[in-house]
Amino acid sequence: MLLVPRLLVAITLGLSVAAASPQISPRVRHESRSTIPSGWTPVHRAGGDTVIPLKVGLVQPNLASIEEYVMDVSHPDSPNYGNHWSPVKVAQTFRPSVESVEIVRSWLLSNGVEPHRVKLSQSGSWITANVTVAEAEGLLGTEYYVYEHQNGHKHIACDKAYHLPEHVSKHVDLVMPTLHFDAKVKPGAPLEKRDGKIQSVGAPGFGPVSPKTTGTIKNIFDELDHCDEQITPNCLRALYDFVYTPLAPKKNSIGIVEYTPQAYVPSDLDLFFKNFSKSQVGQRPVMASIDGGTIDVSGSGFGYNGESNLDLQYVMALVGHKQNVTLYQVGDEVQGASFNNFLDGIDGSYCTYEGGDDPSQDGIYPDPYGGYQGKEDCGTYSPAHVISTSYSYDEYELTPAYMQRQCNEYAKLGLMGTTVLYSSGDSGVAAYNRNCLNPDGSVSPDGKLFAPTFPSTCPYVTSVGATQVNPGAKVTDPESACAQVIYSGGGFSNVFKMPDYQKNAVENYLTKYPPPYAADRYNTTGSRAYPDISANGANYAVAIQGEYYSVYGTSASSPVTAAILSAVNDARLAIGKKPIGFINPTIYSTTFQKAFNDITNGTNPGCGTAGFSAQPGWDPVTGVGTPNFPKLLALWLLKQ
Ligand SMILES: *[C@@H]1O[C@H](CO)[C@@H](O)[C@H](O)[C@H]1NC(C)=O
Ligand SMILES: *[C@@H]1O[C@H](CO)[C@@H](O)[C@H](O)[C@H]1NC(C)=O
Ligand SMILES: *[C@@H]1O[C@H](CO)[C@@H](O)[C@H](O)[C@H]1NC(C)=O
Ligand SMILES: *[C@@H]1O[C@H](CO)[C@@H](O)[C@H](O)[C@H]1NC(C)=O
Ligand SMILES: *[C@@H]1O[C@H](CO)[C@@H](O)[C@H](O)[C@H]1NC(C)=O
């Protein structure tokens, strides 16, 4: 409010004031990045007269209270438990203030950007202006370079940091294009042909969590005495005591997110159903295509079909034929997409939120590369009550502001009553490819610092780790942390602070079972710890292109957990209660923790260490444990 009078003066006096005093407060560093992401090299300064579309994302009011709002509807002891917000209330609550709009606009005007170039988005949440590189460098106190990727792709970004006047900085979340690099692989670099690996266009972080396979298997079993060698739907039902027939399938919903070119194969669903769920032969997921999402892709095999087939075969079999499963299939085959494209597709207010999508990281539609030519999807589909995603990034690949913006959206989904599950990663405490962090923020195989996984580290996501039936053990024996082919991702964020709901649980772990590491290994400053829960992630029998494969990964753990939580929603909806929404504050409560099978054996190695160890209570390998369905159901039915 104090700033308004100053602003009026600036507007009234116009250019003369601007010329005399282009800045009315000292400049502060707004965002920085210590290292260039691997693969990129600066080749030369960007030409001063190159025009770039500068986008200024405004801060949203009330974000400081978002934790309070989310807890109010999600904390098990809150009188408002389950009173989720409508999408309209969410959009209104977080719409940027007129003051923020005016302060950013007048900063641009006073620096010589003429009014006709400055545009405000319809939602009022971002301001754009076409400016020259020279103007941007002046506005932001930075230097722009042309960077080239080893695959030949070019990108304009600024060096190390950018700055804003102090009074403007307070009203801005992030400015683009600045420090953000391509996390998404662009076309023109057909990576599926490189190194014989499928790392294809646009699938977000396809690396860190893609399921792993040891190859095809000859015999499949459907008896419970083989669950240590092969997981089937019946093994999972036995492990988690999960037997349930839906009562309210029309009211209930569950969604699985896949990123093209990952695609499920209809005939594989039937092959799987014939063996494991006969009543579902011919059943398909309900397609929610976002930004041209399609299962009609040019490639096939484990790399293209492994993730989608795994997720859908298991979720569909576990929820049974009465319950529809929504498939959010995101992105076309040419450009692909990122998490932000998905979030746009299910929440119209997110499309234009804080600068909208980042063209250097998110798919832009209509596709300029010749793929999907339709309009970008904005709030086309409603979010399902439970949504599971088995894709991820490592935190170091993204900037904090980019992650924060996305994390706020997960909080909003929680406010609206959606449970958001992400797999925790398959590399233990390390990053994808066994890389680990160096003190300067880069990664290398000999890095020593543990490398956390995003979005698992967002406090409003429920992160799911992996367990296994020990070799030679019975399905009724306690599981251990997964130690076959993959290790359960877990640890401590370098970006997000520890939310209150997990403080006691994490403190218990660090006090009773202190890890033999210091700050040169993991973030000891009180960061968000993950995963929250876990489920089996080893030896899944998955039908892929007519054969069965043995598949491993937290990629499996997340959809299986989603199916179990969805049954809880069904039972609540059937008696007129609300869905369980954001579950973390509930599952960390003493009462609910006892409704999980505590995993107390195993570790999640990486970075030349044994990683953390699974211990009684919560741990950064398997969270609070695996679900015990009847116990969880009984507790959740008691809640209002
Ligand atoms: C910036 O320039 C592009 C290309 O000329 C144009 O399409 C766009 O509308 C301009 N944006 C603004 C905010 O003026
Ligand atoms: C499941 O989806 C199909 C196809 O969209 C629809 O016809 C059917 O009514 C749905 N069933 C339920 C229980 O929602
Ligand atoms: C799986 O299905 C195939 C083909 O229908 C059949 O030959 C095989 O015996 C089945 N296996 C099990 C374990 O059900
Ligand atoms: C540790 O995490 C906090 C957030 O909890 C973050 O502010 C800090 O920068 C992190 N430290 C390192 C060395 O990454
Ligand atoms: C502990 O886990 C390891 C795998 O990490 C497994 O080989 C061993 O059998 C487990 N022991 C118990 C007692 O569960």
From TrEMBL:
Keywords: Calcium, Glycoprotein, Hydrolase, Metal-binding, Protease, Secreted, Serine protease, Signal, Virulence, Zymogen
Binding sites annotated in the UniProt record for Ca(2+): 598-599, 617, 619
Cofactor note: Binds 1 Ca(2+) ion per subunit.
Root EC class: hydrolase
GO aspect biological process, one term: proteolysis
GO cellular component: extracellular region
Every Peptidase S53 domain range: 230-639
Active-site residues from the entry: 307, 311, 555
Span of the signal peptide: 1-20
Main location group: secreted
Cofactors required: Ca(2+)
Function as written in the Swiss-Prot or TrEMBL entry: Secreted tripeptidyl-peptidase which degrades proteins at acidic pHs and is involved in virulence.
Protein name, entry field: tripeptidyl-peptidase II
Organism: Polyporus arcularius HHB13444
